[in-house]
Specification:
- The structure is a single chain.
- The protein is mainly beta.
- It has a single domain (19-119), classed as Sandwich (Immunoglobulin-like), CATH 2.60.40.1120.
- It has one helix at 3-15; strands at 20-27, 30-35, 46-54, 59-66, 72-75, 78-84, 93-102, 105-111, 116-119.
- It has a four-stranded antiparallel sheet with strand order 4-3-7-8, with no helix packed on it. The protein has a three-stranded mixed sheet with strand order 5-2-9, with no helix packed on it. A two-stranded antiparallel ribbon has the order 1-6.
- The radius of gyration is 21 Å and the shape is elongated.
C-alpha cells in the first residue's frame, strides 16, 4: 500500500474518534391527551416520556407528568450540549416513547408522536418498564 494512502486512512480513522460539540434535543416539546374508553378525559393519569438513543440499548432519560382536567400532560423541550464521537455506526439518534398508566386501566407503551390522543382500555395497570442498565 502506498505510504500516502496509508497515512490518509490512518488520519481519517483517528479523526473519527475525536469528540466534537453537538447541541442536541434530548426531549421534544410534546403533549399527550389521555381519554377513557368513552372518550372522556382521564384526570391524574401518569404520562412518562422516555428518551432513547440509537444505537445504544440504554434509556437516556425519562420524565413523568400527570394529566390535567382536560386529560393532557405537557412536556417542555430540553436541549443540551454533548460531546459526540463519530464512529462507523454514525452518531446517536434520539427517539422517544410514551408510557401511560392510570389506576384501573391497562398500561400503554407506544411510539412517540405529537399531538396525540390515546384511549386507555379498562384492565390491570402495571408500572412502566424499568430502565435497562
Amino acid at each position: 500500500m502506498p505510504r500516502a494512502l496509508f497515512s490518509a486512512l490512518l488520519a481519517l480513522g483517528l479523526s473519527a474518534c475525536v469528540p466534537y460539540p453537538a447541541y442536541r434535543t434530548t426531549q421534544p416539546e410534546a403533549e399527550l391527551q389521555v381519554l377513557d374508553e368513552q372518550g372522556q378525559a382521564l384526570v391524574g393519569a401518569n404520562v412518562t416520556l422516555i428518551a432513547r438513543a440509537h444505537p445504544t440499548p440504554f434509556e437516556q432519560s425519562r420524565e413523568t407528568r400527570s394529566t390535567d382536567a382536560e386529560g393532557i400532560a405537557r412536556f417542555a423541550s430540553q436541549h443540551e450540549w454533548q460531546a459526540e464521537v463519530m464512529f462507523l455506526h454514525g452518531r446517536l439518534v434520539y427517539y422517544w416513547e410514551w408510557c401511560v398508566t392510570a389506576a384501573g386501566y391497562q398500561t400503554a407503551l407506544i411510539p412517540f408522536s405529537t399531538p396525540l390522543q390515546i384511549r386507555l382500555q379498562r384492565g390491570a395497570s402495571e408500572p412502566c418498564p424499568a430502565p435497562r442498565d
